[in-house]
Amino acid sequence: MMHVPASRSCPPLPSLLLTLLVRFTGTSDEDFQVTQPESSVSVRAGEILTLGCNVSARSPAGPVLWFRENGQERQLIYNFNGSQFPRVTQVENTEFNQTDYSIRISDVSPKDVGTYYCVKLTIAHPDMAYVSGSGTFVSVNGTTHEIFQVQQAEMTQTVSTGETITLSCSVPDSFPKGPVLWFKGHGPNREIIYNFKEGFFPRVKEIGHPTKPGNTDFSIRISELSPADTGIYYCVKFKEGKPDTEFQSGPGTKVFVTRTSNQVAPGAPERHLMTMRGTKLRKNLL
Asked: Entry's InterPro entries (predicted)?
């Protein structure tokens, strides 16, 4: 980004950018234009998004920037000064008579939804002016249950006592920052089964890599199951705060733990032994 000396009538560029982020009018008194050919673009999650922008050939010196606006959130998307912006590249890169300032954004996700503005700054004294394109609204299409919901692949699972069970959970990386926890049951009396950040859970192990950036796998494995483990297990995403608040829960996985054929039901061991003895006695009599 080009440096502009500070003065009373010409604020430093960072201060000006804050002002630009507050107001995008799309108009200016300058005689050159910034053209964004598409008023809206729709792409599918995972695809590459191309945003067009052309600036008049005879335009004064000054940088071109891309911003994204989504509600009250405004973010610098790309600067053509050589800075690194992951997933964003320049479509054309000609050194002379540069007029094409189109960009490509790879691996699009729902977090990329918003209106994108191509903005031309003009450096002059005593004022710094700008011209903004009219904006391109970007929508991201995809299967709703894949990109907007906590996923638990299995609705029900049945295992035997002593076995190990795997409970799958996928959390979209487009969700706000915050922890993921596993619970058995729901409501105020639900039991915490696993916390990926803290706590001691001797029978539970995580499968994915929850500390790895971009991780979406929060599956767990529970060992040495007993009938007491029967119930509904929920993978729950929380939103970071003071305190953290529940953002979204998975649909739940019903777990049934059954006894094997050679196991005795609790509360009736004597009856079972007496039956076995009676059976042997009858066989001997025969």
From this structure: Ig-like_CS_Receptor, Ig-like_dom, Ig-like_dom_sf, Ig-like_fold, Ig_sub, Ig_V-set
Detail the DSSP E strand segments found in the chain: 34-35, 40-44, 49-51, 54-55, 64-70, 73-79, 88-90, 103-105, 114-123, 128-132, 136-141, 156-160, 165-167, 180-184, 191-195, 204-206, 220-222, 231-239, 245-249, 253-258
Find the helix or strand (DSSP H, E) in which 151 lies: none
Element (H, E) at 63: none
pLDDT, tens digit, 9 for 90 and up, residues 146-191: 556 888 888 899 999 999 999 999 998 778 889 999 999 988 899 9
Distance CA(118)–CA(106), nearest Å, equals: 18
pLDDT digits (tens, 9 = 90+) for 40-75: 888 888 889 999 999 887 777 788 899 998 666 678
In angstroms, how far is the first alpha carbon of the chain from the final one? 100
Q: Which three-class secondary structure state does DSSP give residue 266?
A: coil
- Position 3: which residue type? H
| CB atoms closer than 10 angstroms to residue 17 | 19
Using the structure block, give the residue that is written with the tokens 């209106």: 115
Cis peptide leading into 126, omega within 30 of 0? Answer: yes
Range(s) of the chain covered by CATH 2.60.40.10:
34-140, 151-258
Q: Are residues 234 and 218 in contact, defined by beta-carbon separation less than 8 angstroms? A: no
| Chain-centroid distance, C-alpha 14 | 29
Q: Token pair of 232, please?
A: 């509904």
**Topology, domain 34-140:** Immunoglobulin-like (2.60.40)
Q: What CATH topology corresponds to 151-258?
A: Immunoglobulin-like (2.60.40)
